[in-house]
Amino acid sequence: MMDIPTSLKRTSLRDVHVAAGAKMVPFGGWDMPVQYTGIIEEHRCVRSAVGLFDISHMGEFEVRGPGALAAVQALTTNDASTLAIGQVQYSLLCYPGGGIVDDLTLYRLADDHFMLTVNASNIDKDWAWVTAGGRGGAWTNVSEATGLLAVQGPKAEGLVQRLADRDVTRVPYYHFASGKVAGVPCLVSRTGYTGEDGFELYAPADRSAALWHALVDAGKADGIQPIGLGARDTLRLEMKFALYGNDIDETTSPLEAGLGWVVKPAKGEFTGRVAIEAVRAAGIKRKLVGFEMAERAVARHGYPILKDGDPVGVVTSGSFSPSLERCIGMGYVRADLAATGTELDVDIRGKAQRARVAKTPFVPSHAKKI
Amino acid sequence: MANVPADLRYTKEHEWAKLEGDKARVGITAFAQEQLGDVVFVELPKAGSKVTAMKTFGVVESVKAVSDLFAPLSGEVVEVNAELPKKPEVVNTDPYGKGWMIVIKLDGTKEWEGLMSAADYETLVAAAGH
Fold first, then answer.
1. Which one is the CATH code of B9-120: 3.40.50.300, 2.60.120.1440, 2.40.50.100, 3.40.1190.20?
2. I need a labelling partner for B91 at 20 to 30 A (CA). Which of A105, A133, A186, A194 fits?
């Protein structure tokens, strides 16, 4: 309802979204579609059929050259040396103090050539971070030239396959292949942020509209719908996937966030290693958990979490779960209160509303773990 | 153009009020529900409680946001829509009908004259929408 600042960045699909009736909102400096028909309907479309997302606002950096692997190893927490060409890895950039600069997916394009996909709101910060201090490798920020569409849902594989010039059904989870989809050169990545099977398609920004229209046309019989950031958020929340700026940030340790599985101290030195290992040795004091509300009461980011009236944590994400038809959320709680089933309260506008620590993901993942 | 029934009056916070004798029925406008998106929860006062013009009387939660409800008029709540906790989505599908929220027994008639006409509200929405 506010005037949209004219400085908002636009993906090459911005006018396509407006023409499709999307409600546009500012997100991380971008003018993005939050919904087309409605968050709940779009959410269910992804869980039951297939949804199409424009996520071209995400950033992509490439690093190549003899120093590329060493640079990536020094910057990220996961072990990039284990990554085969054609494989993708979830990883983190951390500060020396152990807080999180950003979370990212790392692609090994060749022995000495990687791509990092980073959060839209962090592109400038991350770019400054990875290029500071001469860590080696030749870095290129290809964010503006790169379009990114996500095709997610049980019918995603069949749809992309019908348009692809090669067998994408054989691309395993967290792997990618290069090929053409609807005649558009793409990096076809079996990844996503929804818990459904599907692909993320990296294409030249000036071809992403053609790719979008081809997917919409070819997906009509599958019930394809464009999906906004609103449903992207409820879908990822049902999987307890962290969102940078909400659930993780410079003040949170990967270990508190449950991301210890992408921290590999045995690989050698990397930024943040010492601090993270100190936290590991001391034991974490708080932990990111998922919770379900007893009533229809939506816990929002920043609401206090209570135990017997005392503050024991804070909500980082919360919404109505269209799949469960209950209110769910994530938040940091004192480590001794993190066990599944623990009864807590969330302070919602001064009223203590009952919540219970839940097993996560809240709904089963259908990502193709092959 | 937004759906703005001519026989209702409006607040700048996007509530509507319909005069029914010495009472007024209250809800949120079509524009408001469009802006909110899918409504999943509505918190309303109990019958018998007092509300004051342009003070909050409840809360509406959509999937993505929480928003205060402002009373268009002062008085006593004499009826509350008991269906809304079970079917909050009717706020989206029928904001001027089944999506009504409360009925207020008015303290007086003066405040009614201060509410926006449909024409004024349409102008407000046209300006806010774009």
1. 2.40.50.100
2. A194
